[in-house]
Structures
1.
Amino acid sequence: MRILIKNGTVITAEGAASLDVLIEGERVVALSTGGSDVAGSWQAGADLVLDADLKYVIPGGVDAHTHMEMPFGGTTSADTFETGTRAAAWGGTTMIIDFAIQTKGQSLSAGLDAWQAKADGACAVDYSFHAIISDVNESSLKEMNVLVQQGVTSFKLFMAYPGVFYATDREIFQAMDRAADNGALIMMHAENGIAIDAIVASALAKGQTDPIFHGLTRPAEMEGEAVHRAITLAQVARAPVYIVHVSSSPALAAVVQARDLGQNVFAETCPQYLFLSEEDMARPGFEGAKFVCTPPLRPRHHQAALWQGLRTDDLSVVATDHCPFRYADQKELGVGDFTKIPNGLPSLENRMDLIYQGVVAGEISLSRWVEVTSTNPAKMFGLYPKKGSIAPGSDADIVIYDPLVGQTISASTHHMAVDYSCYEGKTITGRVDAVLSRGRQVITAGSYTGDAGHGRFVPRQLCQHLR
Ligand code: URP
Ligand code: ZN
Ligand code: ZN
């Protein structure tokens, strides 16, 4: 199958140009300035011509932080790999990296096998895995080398959630030490979980049980402290570290300080920290539960610092941390006790559109939009230039994006398997028009034309973003 995308403006991390894109099978094979004889002959030989006049042609989004079918907080996140990756396609994301969880007492490989079984044959777009290490011991440390060989080159550890995923500083250091040897990237959930547990206990003792107390018991300083500690441990271990879901200015300040000193420290933020705030957790009744995620939403003034971090590359990636729970029968587990509200928000389908609003508002450039949503996550997690690029040899994961049409975000029209949207009624500019996943059209003129099972597991190289 030969596909020609003509008349569009190709936007990459490097810039913008009027280029026609020729695809053969699963790959991009050539780019040419529109209107030339070459493009004319391409058109004659094409099986399908997509006209991208007045539209952007961008590399498909790479969401490096999702949780499909994740057992958490006494329930399981609502999107399966099938529904979640279909929603990803609708939103212009053509690659996800999910987290395979090691159960305490079991091996990392058993966790990976379990997650491979969930995803195998179910995905609309390509996928890969990070591994969550819940049990740092001699055997799981050794196993990190095996997973790296299998293309699972990044490992998440938690300074939060004591009794669930929490790792001690000693364990974190041991995993970093191993990563310094085998080239893996340690991803850190950085919040001081031990101190937070004490704050939570004292709130509950005072009868403070509403959703807003989820936020008030996890102060930004507890995130800043943990980020600083994680960075210091990584510095001593001589390992690179990637801080996930940075939500606040103290956390970002610790990242900036380390990066200014030249340390290999990287960070992501998520749409919810750029667009939502603590006020949402304080909505009347139990509605605030819709906005409970960890780290929590912050007072609005943190948002300007995060946008600045995106401009300066102190925040290199925007990922969603997509971890959806239905309001009706899952979030309600926490009525009368905020600690029982399953933590996480849906936003996989909205990420490309939401971050495009940063372009509309003048916060970031078009190229930076592509860089933080596609190119940088691909480089960070060893997928570039297969993903995150439109160049000869790259996978034909391509989105045709219409920057001129408006849309209103709503649970009644989204495709995530969850009964609410954090952005309900928000009107935005721009919309995905067509999506190709490895040369296969998965979104065509407002319809889903993909298949569960088209998406493949992609083994990853080591981080390509080191300084
Ligand atoms: O609230 C969140 N973030 N849920 C998912 C688990 C995590 O910590 O990433
Ligand atoms: Zn986390
Ligand atoms: Zn997460």
Note: The longest strand covers residues 398-408.
2.
Amino acid sequence: METTIAEKRITPVETDFLPLEGTDYVEFYVGNAKQAALFYKTAFGFQSIAYAGPETGVKDKASYVIRQNKLTFVLTTPLKTNNEIADHIYKHGDGVKFLALRVQDARDAWHQTTKRGGVSFMEPEVLNDENGEVVISGIKTYGETVHLFIERKNYNGAFMPGYKKWETNYNPSSTGLSYVDHCVGNVGWNQMNKWVKFYEDVMGFRNILSFDDEDISTEYSALMSKVMSNGNGYVKFPINEPAEGKKKSQVEEYLDFYNGEGVQHVALATKNIVETVTDLQNRGVEFLKVPSTYYDDLIDRVGSIDEDIEPLKELGILVDRDDEGYLLQIFTKPVEDRPTLFFEIIQRKGAKSFGKGNFKALFEAIEREQGLRGNL
Ligand code: FE2
């Protein structure tokens, strides 16, 4: 199979049965939400937005909502054992539970997806407070991950009913991260096409790019990937599955340590990757490094770019070009001790692809880390 780029048709608005306005928030289940919130504020430049916990009448969990530009994270921890959140953390470690998507009509989103075979996580529920109403519904996707549909057109509070505004004296400056570009899921052996079909049939997404194991294999590690996009292109979910290689695939390492399928990385967009990554590194965020020889023939590979090569080389930022432009990207190391979730920082300058030209250099860097962990 060759890499294919499907024709760039955008589903017409009138036939898009699940019109999504983008990512509303990403919610993580973590072992210690208070500390995780401080980590994301300090290291990534998020601001405190809202809080829910015992002080607001929630007895079994605490949730911290943090935001930077259009990017909202929720960090949730259980207060006791023997509940769904505690079980999730026991099984998976810290990870993404909810990829929440903004819609105009959460009831319709639930009806449209469940009648097409989506498994309900929660039926439409209306939440009210003095700031208006939010309607939430949700369906299950790979592993124990859930897509929530969030309708907040009639709400003007800090986050949603049940949360109170969270004001702090410690407000580190933004690092320029602005929105979720895409979220990648790792699924099990031979499961990729099942989930491609789920996104096509249940959510009306289209497969816009495919990478086979010829594209994405290094000496040891191999994987296959298909990129799913919603009708307007605001929401993109690449799906990876492991492929046979000489040694253990990076996707297999993830599945072993996450104990199943889940979100591998969340790509965060910036308008100035050099400034953002400089800032993130100064705040302690650790990135994968490629050998400096990557930069020797960079211009031959990608043509002329607006940025100076030297800072890209110093920071380890990768560049790739497609027929519409180029992109700059870099990947953090996993942000927890398990080799599971990590982040990508991406700046698009016309390119709508995902950095295929960087896969080899990148995966060799991942394998060096896998080797250090003894998991290759
Ligand atoms: Fe990515």
Note: The pocket of fe (ii) ion is lined by residues 182, 184, 265, 267, 344, 354 (CB under 6 Å).
